[in-house]
Amino acid sequence: MNRLSRRRLLAAAALSPLLAACGGGQEPEVPADGVPRGKLSVWLHQTRAYDAVFTPLLHQYVKEFGGVDITPLYVPVNQLDTKLLTAFAGGAAPDLFRIGGWTIPGHARKGRLAPTEKTVTGAYDQAALDSMTHDGKVYGAPTDYTLCYLYYRRDRFAEAGLDPDKPPTTWEEVAEYSKKLTSADGRKVGLQWILGNPQWTVMQLLALVKGKGGTILSPDGRKATLATDAGVAALRYYGGLGNARLSNPMSGFGLFATGEAAMLVSGLFAMDLFPTLDKRLEFGKVFDIAPLPRFDAGQPVVPAYTWGWAVSAKTKIPYTAWHFIDYLQRPDVAATQLWEAGSLTPVKGWEKLTGADQKAIDIMVASAPHADFGPRTPVWNEMAKALTDAGDAVAHGKKTPEQAALDFDQAMRLAL
């Protein structure tokens, strides 16, 4: 290694709050020579857009720090947590992995994650950082932060005689618009929920339940509270929109891309996703975004989530793992990641990052005070499955909202 690259490495080790936080205990916090080394296994969910950012960075890192060999494994996003659970159970977890902030309490409670141990609050947005925290300890670096938007098809609005420049602002208006956007045979609908997906079910119902003044779990997380007037009303609303019989390999995303669905709740990444599903889907002309609606008499609730980079508590090369994270999280990379992949790294001052459509950033800034990351519970997977069962049962007409809410609360009594 030449003197220049050595100097840059030592500076990074001194300045980066992540590098000062290795936490694994298997090697010194900072090796005597300051050089990362070893074979690093990395698991992540991957998209073509993010691949354009991550893969070149991986190759650049290995070239610059020749003592490191990185083996990435790309896992479909809906399989990543299950694969991680299996790996942890078998004692074969990767050194470094992408993790949803909502799963951190469960993993941290079982001692699977290496805490950063020292504050990184100076580097990241506090709300995003909180979503990577459990019992006062930070367990990763937030790398993909989003709040939910209402996506809508401008062409479908125009066909139905609705003004594409005046999207609905309340859930009541969403229901009214949906009636006008639904065809007689039900093959085209207004708002379509993303059904059968635990993460999206939690976020969709979170907006409705809390918007009605209720909760999914009690504030202390010890009791399920869906079987209330607010919870039942939210499930009734949920079951009254869309057509659960419509199907697409990409779920609601695919139905929106084909035009079968005129509205969808999703995050920032979908702005780049939809044109890959159909190149005719031009943002601002064929589809658009709006702030997430609220109930007329309710508080604004904007579901949010954060993906982050986390390190296994069992890794033997924690310094190298955190050093690679630090390399991936540089400010210039955050800007590139936003531009190339529509993925926002929530560094302090993310509001000023360039790369995303300004309208999207403006909506996120305005929505941020109402961001809600949902229940923080070690039994998130159990909660999400039970909530998905409840929501899907109502959407398919298999249960009344009242019965679905009672069944959810009963399932959670066994889990909590």
TrEMBL record:
SUPFAM superfamilies (UniProt xref): Periplasmic binding protein-like II
Cellular-component GO terms for this entry: ATP-binding cassette (ABC) transporter complex, substrate-binding subunit-containing
Alphabetized UniProt keyword annotations: Signal, Transport
GO molecular function: maltose binding
Record bears the keyword Transport: yes
Gene3D superfamilies membership: Periplasmic binding protein-like II (3.40.190.10)
Signal peptide feature range: 1-20
Biological process according to GO: maltodextrin transmembrane transport; maltose transport
Family affiliation: Belongs to the bacterial solute-binding protein 1 family.
Protein's UniProt name: ABC-type glycerol-3-phosphate transport system, substrate-binding protein
